[in-house]
Prior knowledge:
disordered N terminus; 14 strands; 12 helices; 5-stranded antiparallel beta sheet; 39% helix; single chain; 3-stranded antiparallel beta sheet; alpha+beta; 19% strand
Amino acid sequence: MDGNETVIYARRKRYCGSLINWFYLMIAVILHEPIFFSMWNFSQSYFPYNDNSQYICLRSLIKGEELCRPSCRYGYFSLYGMKYCHAWLTCNSIQSIQRHGRIGGGLVKEVYLARWEDFDVAYSELTYPQYREDFQQGLKILQHFHGSQRIAQLIGFCDDILITEYYTLGESANFQNMVRASPEIDNISLRLQLCVDHVEILSDLHSSVDEVMYVMCDTNNLDKLLTQYLLSEDMHLVLNDVDSVAEMTFVGGEWRGIKCGKRELEGEFVAPEQKWTGATEFNDTEMQTYDEKTDIWKVPDVCNFFLGSGPEVTRLQFKLLDIHMACKSLNPRDRPTAIQLMLTYRKLLTQIKE
């Protein structure tokens, strides 16, 4: 088959697949027979789909070429190089995944490089039963933010195992080493873009959906925060570790604040409202709650890490001085929102590129 015939064949297969899927589903709904549900599930696998033929593409700095994958609806995933979306992996599929060496982890989970079909994936496993609630919270957030290119893509889950997309470049904490090793990719636009990515992610977390917003809690120092992010192949930030992302809820006409753990937090990186100011020993029951503006306090430190140093950086930091000083306001209400930061960063990035 030539190229045109291949496209026509793929379209016919998707069209036929959709008709067959609906045929089996309607029979199952009418007759309530398990056998027809099985036939429908089989058809879902045999006749994969993509959403309106929409693709997500990036320019890989590793391979030096454009990589694409189909855009997928809720409950499905795709990896770069795949032609169709695949349903989230379940226990049966996960049992056949080949797990290799450890690539990360912490208190809640251990993370391993693994192989599913012809693709590398990240295989996360719960460390101890007492952290299962945190583990499940991470899964819940990955499901909630399905479709976001700035939050790690969920591939499948089973009991205490979680499969996500594997990001070759690893943690953002390694960024400075990466650009030193590959100076040809290093420029002020790339560095400022990572600042944009950070506040874009915060904007997504802080945007209220169903009267819930999210706050990053496992970020008590810069090094720890940087391990929460991975770098995509086109050098963008991807939020990966979401086990300790806390939920703020809107109750009785006001936002109910959160506390990041039950121990005392210290250090300049931590927002003032997160610190114990009582005259006695720390007492968690008397500790006041706080909100998403704790994330904003930390933004200048994160952005300055990615910007690094140099004459261009100094000029850029001068332009950011006012809004970064506002981020460090002692009163959380005086700090800008993530959206305001995002708009400021984007405006400067556009000016730099012009």
